[in-house]
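Let's inspect one such protein example.
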Amino acid sequence: MRTMETDVVVIGGGSTGAGVVRDVAMRGFRAILLDRADMAQGTSGRYHGLLHSGGRYIASDPESATECAEENAIVSRINADAVERTGGLFVTTSADDEEYADLFLERARAAHVPAEEISPAEALRREPRLDPHLKRAFAVEDGTVDGWRMTWGAARSAIAYGAEILTYTRATGIQRSEDRIEAVFARDERTGEDIRIDCSFVLNCGGPWA
């Protein structure tokens, strides 16, 4: 059995685990991340990929709208190469009532969601398949995220801060002494080698497999 030693073991190599091991390493702790497969092989590689502007929630859930806008800015800043700034449009079609549009910018400002009104002609230039007789249009800062690139970006940053990333390494057990963590046991899925990692803290970021 191979023996390793660290301060913190993070279990799960999705976007959460990669972000957590990066944060731990940036704080100066020794850290090892384990994943039974490769990075972002679960939910993080299979979600819709939309980076919300918050515009969808300015009326129904302003608090969530604000959170979306804040997270959009953070992800765009710290992992820009994983984000495509597609933008988004909210439009009043020829069949829609204009009451919602009249309140759109006011609600966006209240929720701190960046938005601007653009002309129907500009909206049609950006998206020619819209209703040609649309009445009003608002642009928001939606984007798309490459889940694999985002996760590996965080993982590479964590490695730069001294963390170790062990893919295809399945966590098989945790050794405790009363309420104190002593070690995590794992198996290298490629070689079958068993590993003991002495540590004092475990963060389970296994998502739906937690």
The chain is about 30% helix and 30% strand.
